[in-house]
Amino acid sequence: MNASILFVLVSSTTVAPSYETSGLGLVVGGKLGAGLAQPFGPFGAGFVGELELGYLLPLLARSFELLGTASYRGPSATGEIADPRLPGPLVYTLSRTELLAGLGLIYRAPIPSKWVRPYVGVLGRASFLSLEIDAKAGDRPAGINEERRVDFGFGALAGAELYLGPGALLGELRFDHVPVDGFVLRDTNTSELGLAVGYRLFL
Fold it and tell me: Which of 56, 67, 72, 157 could bond 62 through an S-S bridge, CB–CB 3.0 to 4.6 Å?
């Protein structure tokens, strides 16, 4: 009797998640989180939202997913520049709106559990960046400057999925690197380390 119960328990933990054996192989997901840019560039922490659409490749029990993403992030930065030619220190506020489009690959590690899958992934990133800098020197406005540009970088991510219902809850750690060398931002980047939670639906 005890041996039978043990066999049932072990078997129940080794059954594959349903996405591996059924469905069209389509994946739709959304994530919300926060990004920390301060270690890498002039910006601080900010909100990150991302939508994704994927396709499970029909090999190795659908462990690989071709992934496309669209995400938004918009942290700001403030600073001060001392210049003796000005009537006071130049104080500026830099507002950033960035849309990221990504294309990459996710690999889910087939560990012996029907509830959990760890995963890693890499993506190419296209950054559609809008910048606005508002500055003043002492009590004199220095004007508003704007810049719009497109840059390219890459992203890496690692996380785990908990399978509930027709999909999975997820927690994810990510890193995005996008170098920038423009008029407002010179020889820097919009790189971020981020943490997100979300849900993926397997169709």
Answer: 56
CA-to-CA dists, residue 17 to 27, 41, 57, 141, 161, angstroms: 14, 41, 15, 60, 11
Task: Judge: domain 27-202, CATH 2.40.160.20.
Answer: yes
Is the pTM higher than 0.90? The answer reads: no
Distances (CA, A) of 152 to 38, 54, 59, 75, 201: 20, 21, 30, 19, 29
Contacts of 58 (CB under 8 A, 6+ apart): 25
90 beta partners: 81, 137
| pLDDT per residue as tens digits for the range 135-180 | 666 666 666 777 888 999 999 999 999 998 889 999 999 999 988 8
Angle (nearest 5°) at CA 41 between 178 and 121 = 40
End-to-end CA distance of the chain: give it in Å, rounded.
39
Indicate the domain borders of the chain.
27-202
